[in-house]
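If your schedule permits, I should be very grateful for your opinion on a structural question. What I wish to show you is a protein chain and, alongside it, a tokenised description of its three-dimensional fold. Would you kindly read the sequence against the tokens and tell me how you understand this chain to fold? Here, with my thanks, is the record as I have it:

===
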Amino acid sequence: MNTLYSTDREVLETAVRWLEAGRRAMMVTVAKTWGSSPRPAGALMLMDADGRFVGSVSGGCVEEDLVMRYRSGQLGDQFPTLIDYGVDRAQATRLGLPCGGRLELLIEQLDSAAPLRQVLDAIKAGQLLTRRVCLATGEVSLHAVSDAADAFSYRDDTLSKVYGPRWQLLLIGDGQLSRYVTQIALLLDYRIIICDPRDAPAAEPVPDGVERVSMMPDDAVRSYVNHPRSVVVALTHDPKLDDMALLDALNSPAFYVGAIGSKLNCARRRERLQTLGLTDAQLQRLHAPVGLPIGSHAAPEIALSIMAEVTALRNAAVQAATRGTANT
């Protein structure tokens, strides 16, 4: 899985606008990192000859240096090309890289908006697409993939990055805890759907950009959880609702499935789900009690523990996929 947020989408959309307006554009990708680095492998930046840029490959100083070198012609005229930052301590210190930090960056001259539009169309359609760059020839190709296990790779003379649908969070139950989870998830750029079929009206309107649906939880899972960048968390404390959602979620491609409850109640829930036909392997995917054990009791603390666990697992998946290829 890739830890990609709206900045990547912004880079692609801006590149399309610039290219269609006749402006030259360079795309920069973090190909490899050593030691401490501000941005992970796969991070994107876009820049033009007028000094404008979007996205980020560091904390800010590398971006400014890149733009200066681009505008002054110091990057040369052969693309794609690889450049290093932070090779020596003096440069790392000047550019604000952490101690021991080093970046290898791929710089491409973008020539056509059409391939980038194809990537954006795939994202909107909920599809996964790999953009592959041949470093020897500069050829760019697009390939459909079924999962994002190897979301970013840099091997030999090829750099590949998977693009796909935005990470989404389906919450079962619209209560106080769901609203706190929503607040944190919005900061992390999730698409959020709150499902609650109960008659009781919500205490307050959902925040802008959040969907609230009144369908049954199993219907919501089947409608929304159709790709591996999905997270499902059951928070109603009502077995009739939570179990319905979990039964389908554990049969889905969801990256994370969790449910609230005490250890005793969660053990009973597993027994119920097993009688409904779930296998031991499927039940092992269930995170229940949900969240990291941080001693949380209040609703905001529980919400923090839930999103902390999801984030930790996402980051671990990225590190596992890139270990030995994108990071050293």
